[in-house]
Amino acid sequence: MKTIRLTVGQAVIRFLKNQYVGRDGVESPFFAGCLGIFGHGIVAGVGEGLMEDTNFRYILTKNEQASVHIAIAYAKMKNRMGTFACISSIGPGATNMVTGAACATINRLPVLLIPGDIFARRNVAPVLQQLESASSQDISVNDCFKPVSRYWDRINRAEQLITSLPEVMRVLTSPSETGAVTLALPQDVQAEAYDFPEDLFRKRVWKIQRPRPDSDVLKQAVQWIKASKKPVIVAGGGVIYSEATEIFAKLVEQTRIPVAETFAGKGSLPYNHPSNLGAVGATGTPGANEYTEQADLVIGIGTRYSDFTTASKTAFQNPDVKFININIAEFDSHKHSALPLIADAKVCLEELADLLTGYKVNEEYAARVIALNQEWDTKVTEFYTVSGEIPVHQREVVGAVNDFSGPRDVVLCAAGSLPGDLHKLWRTRDTKGFHLEYGYSTMGYECAAGLGAKLACPDREIYVMVGDGNYLMMNSEIVTAIQEGIKFIIILLNNNGFASIGGLSQSIGSQRFGTKYRYRDEETGLLTGDVLPVDYAQNAKSLGAYVIEANSIDSLKSALIEAKNQKKTTVITIETSLTKGVPGYAWWEVAISEVSEVDTVKDAYSDYVEKKKKQRYYL
């Protein structure tokens, strides 16, 4: 067996650059490079390996959590067929990545995390940034990654890489198992040399397979569909990740089964497709929620049925409702006591389409879907209509950006009140045109993710829509975008507080307590004074962005034209109303205090008790 002598750090980089993925006859490198910040515990090992191998791109980011968000957004835009590795130092740099790891794993998106670790030989412990334990010497802050990683390993001997690295790739490239993978590397081990087998570094293509459904279960599913009177499809992210949108549209047009879309599944059909009822669940459209409420059969495709999708288990009210779940993950396929079609969405839909030849839903049932689609589009136009009020309404900003954007352009968002408005109102025309991270609803995702999305799709315009709260949490990667010469557009909506959580607070009787960006009132001790004088435009300028200040929808429209013609990352700022939002159409459960001296909380609790009566177990 031929060997090559490398350090562990050098070996890791050489291995990663030779990993490829293949699906449907198309091959591509799996790793686009490495993101991170050199700190102690990573700079002398993996850092030296990156310096030697300049063919493996290294991007210096400004926050380790942001590194992971960049990788997640890249993976999402690539339909999980590519990602980045993210590196960090042994202490706070590592723990900064934990939030990103949770985000990746919850959203089933691949990202490789390589945090530096304490000395394996222990003789110099405790080192700077080391977490000590009185009960074990085999622990570090990197153990925090265990519950939020799909695979976790610590390399204490160089030769352990030989068996660990293939496992890293197995999990990252598995459609059913993917998420965050953590490979903790003690700093002394990183710098040690070993005679690695040359075969470890050969080009390897990981075939992304398309498992077909069990034939007996598929036949039963067909029987259920043909016997149903009111079937509904809930389209999740799996439709898009599997690149099944063409066969999905064919099946829908063939059967005329109506479709409701989750956050991750929005874009499975164009917004104006006659069978598209729009957003489902707590942030859903009236039509989608009407049809899911009465459905006797729900066909979930690539969805994990979050509480927003199910309106906290109140969305499906038919006492005889059944579920068929098409999902690559066995875990998700069995939810709601469903008939599980454990398969790749694309091939499963192909087989279903063949077996459902000649089947259509009732004409009256399908006709109402068309009417509801058109009625909602008319309603969206009304929401987009400019009121002339200052500050402007958030829905008007959504409308202006949507109307200006091109068919292949991407809107990107993650948390706050914007996701709900976008879920209901954004007219999605392209399968990748709607990029919402809502599995973890990670505040601070947006600006970093805009960079990741643009790296994945440089030919698309990326419109990052972000509220002031999220922007303040993480705007550092504007600097990285300027550094790398990467351009995307950020629309920063300043409503002087947390609009989403403020609205939620009001709905549960807590009167928006602690959710506004205000000075503290000296008499009451509450945050009810004047608005804080934050100058977001100057802040963005200081980070290197081109900045345009808008104060009306007309000036926003002009700003969008100017931004499109810019060569570098551009931030458009506009003030929006904190309280004038788009109403929701279904319930979402947030527990309310059972005992309170506040009348608004008492009233909210009474309403809460009534709404909980609609919750169901699906057995």
What is the fourth-level CATH superfamily of the largest domain? Thiamin diphosphate (ThDP)-binding fold, Pyr/PP domains
Alpha-carbon distance between the two ends = 56 Å
| Biggest beta sheet attributes | 6 strands, parallel
Shape: globular
List segments where confidence is low: pLDDT < 50 over at least 5 consecutive residues. none
> What is the CA-atom radius of gyration, in angstroms?
25 Å
Task: Describe this entry's structure for a reader.
- This protein is an alpha/beta fold.
- It has three domains: 3-207, Rossmann fold (3-Layer(aba) Sandwich); 215-375, TPP-binding domain (Rossmann fold), CATH 3.40.50.1220; 385-496 and 532-575, 3-Layer(aba) Sandwich (Rossmann fold), CATH 3.40.50.
- The chain has 23 helices and 23 strands.
- The strands form five sheets. Strands 5-4-6-7-9-8 form a six-stranded parallel sheet, sandwiched between helices. It has a six-stranded parallel sheet with strand order 14-13-12-15-16-17, with helices on both faces. Strands 19-18-20-21-23-22 form a six-stranded parallel sheet, with helices on both faces.
- Helix 2 links the parallel strand 4 and strand 5 (58-60).
- Helix 3 runs parallel beside helix 5, helix 3 (64-77) packs across helix 17 (445-456) and helix 15 (394-404) runs parallel beside helix 22 (553-564).
- It is globular.
- The chain starts with a strand and ends in a 7-residue tail after the last helix.
What is this entry, summarized?
By secondary structure, the chain is α/β, with parallel strands linked by helices. The chain contains 23 helices and 23 strands.
